Amino acid sequence: MAAQSPPVCDFDRPAPDFMLPATDGKTYSLNDIAGENGTLIMFICNHCPFVLAVIDKIIRDAKDLQPLGIGVAAICSNDPVAYPDDNFDNMRKMAEERGFPFPYLHDEDQSAATRYGAVCTPDFFGFNRDLGLQYRGRLDATRMNAQASDLPRELFEAMKQVAETGRGPAEQIPSIGCSIKWKA
Among 20, 31, 62, 87, which has the minimal tally of Cβ within 10 Å of its Cβ? Predict the structure, then answer.
């Protein structure tokens, strides 16, 4: 079922902390991820067609944002029992096969998704250097059309602005994707 993130960014809302295991064998907190000029936390999963349509762009944007001082991590919060494609072993495979340039974190108890208010995959939370929320929009207008390659890079441009000014754009289009698969 498709879901959409809220239409308005809750500017300056503090980033919730977490302590989550990653596919690289380490455990990360928010401070481990935070960049000098901002932080991007992405809720993704392995099976969602919306994520699969943009995963190469997510990787590209993460690589392009890191030199700007933006720390990046992805979190999978889906119920791994009901959705085995999203279990930790499959997360590890995806991160390895795709060469994720960021930690891919497993939110088994779904507490991070709850604290962040994540509703869909992909769902993007862009924070400034003070870990105040500045972006809650989409990656771009791709939706599920993986062939759409010439679209404006909304997430990248927003996070570049955050890195440079500490503020996100006033106009943001909500992300749309598969709903988070909550445990029963």
Answer: 31
Q: Which residues contact 171 (CB under 8 A, 6 or more apart)?
A: none
> How far apart, in whole angstroms, are the C-alpha atoms of residue 14 and residue 18?
13
* Confidence bin at 17 (pLDDT 50/70/90): very high
- Rounded CA-CA distance 27/164 in Å is 29
pLDDT of residue 7: 63
Q: For residue 152, with 0-12 CB atoms within 10 Å meaning exposed, 13-18 middle and 19 or more buried, which class applies? A: exposed
Give the integer Cα–Cα distance in Å for 80 and 58. 22
Q: What is the pLDDT of residues 83-121, one digit of tens each?
A: 999 999 999 999 999 999 999 999 999 999 999 999 999
Strands 70-76 and 38-43: parallel
Name the amino acid, one letter, at 138: R
Write the burial class of residue 52 (CB in 10 Å: 0-12 exposed, 13-18 middle, 19+ buried): middle
